[in-house]
Amino acid sequence: MESRPPFEVADVFRQFGAAYCRAHKLSLKQHKVMRAITTCRTSAQGGHVERCSTCDYERISYNSCGDRHCPKCQGPKRRRWVAARVARLLPIEYFHVVFTLPGRLNNLIRHNERFCYDLLFRAAAQTLQAFAARQWGGRLGITMVLHTWGQNLSYHPHVHCLVTGGALSFDQSHWQSAPQGYLFPVKALARVFRGKYLAGLEKKRRELTLPEDSLIKAKGFSCWLREKRDWIVYAKAPFAGAEAVVRYIGHYTHRVAISNSRLLQVTVEGVQFRWKDYRDGRQKTMALTGAEFIRRFMQHVLPGGFVRIRHYGLHAADGLLEVCRALLAGVIASAPEIAVKCPQCGGEVVSYRSCAIVMLKQRVPP
Predict the structure, then answer these.
(1) Which pLDDT does position 134 carry in this prediction?
(2) What does DSSP say about strands 309-313 and 270-277: parallel, antiparallel, or unpaired?
(3) pLDDT tens digits for 176-204?
(4) Cα distances (angstroms) measured from residue 335 to each of 62, 202, 347, 357
(5) Residue 80 pLDDT greater than 90, yes or no
(6) Do the bridges between strand 232-236 and strand 47-51 make them parallel or antiparallel, or are there none, so unpaired?
(7) What are the distances in angstroms from CA 281 to CA 237, 261, 275, 276?
(8) What is the Cα–Cα distance from 132 to 138, expressed in whole angstroms?
(9) Largest CA-CA distance found in the chain, in angstroms, rounded
(10) DSSP, res 205
(11) Where are the domains of the chain?
């Protein structure tokens, strides 16, 4: 049985939640999240009796709230998700790619969360698939996970992507592998991603709720959108095996803004917690008032019913994955480790990409 950490997010809500709710307007969804976390694994959620099968020992175990924003309810879900994804892996390299929105869009996103988060998914998926179509004439498998926070609970919308290191041709006749250790150029990905996201905002600008931002009003929505700003795409080199990539991505799938293990102190003065500053890679301590901690936590509560883990391309269809698996099995079977003699000099021919040789034979002539 897991031991209870010294401090929990629930303790912060019990200490400061009532005063915060009186002073600030929360959505119905935010109220439900606060109540769920506060009552998780308490008598308010009900419980059940656990009894030993060989002796008289028994104990009462209280039920979990099951809310996806609760730090105590994500571990089992994450383990099940990882196991399911590992079972579907292809015998190829996988890549971890991150698409991040610039901070200057944050206020606009907060006023239009559902649309802007949906657009983030679509623009990132379309960008990756466009590169795969142009370079390989095929379709990728992509799994995306939305995150809206940084380590210090700041607002930082981005998506983590698990991407196949290769593509299935559109006619499903062959598999095209990515070069070993390399997917696409990240600067080019960032430019295309920026264009697709801004085009999506421009298309729906009359339906968006605009924040009271003097810069938007002064410059006009279109001009403000297209101001030069950093759009960041990050691609991480593959790990030692596809399963390791999935397990790493699994850390992001069912994570909440802050885990209970990072809390150091909850007192009447406020909250202290650990956070990692990725600019210098160091662990640091941050102290916030109870109200500020709750404000930061609540800005990461997602709209009701919003799907934050999504699958695209090959990952969205079991049938296509099975086609890929069959092609890859055929490639491996038809590319044995044998010495080939050069027809000109008789020397040994070394094949660096044996799969590519087989795929050339499988291509349908134009």
Answers:
(1) 95
(2) unpaired
(3) 999 888 899 999 999 999 999 999 999 99
(4) 57, 50, 19, 8
(5) no
(6) unpaired
(7) 19, 19, 10, 6
(8) 6
(9) 86
(10) G
(11) 9-62, 75-257+300-320
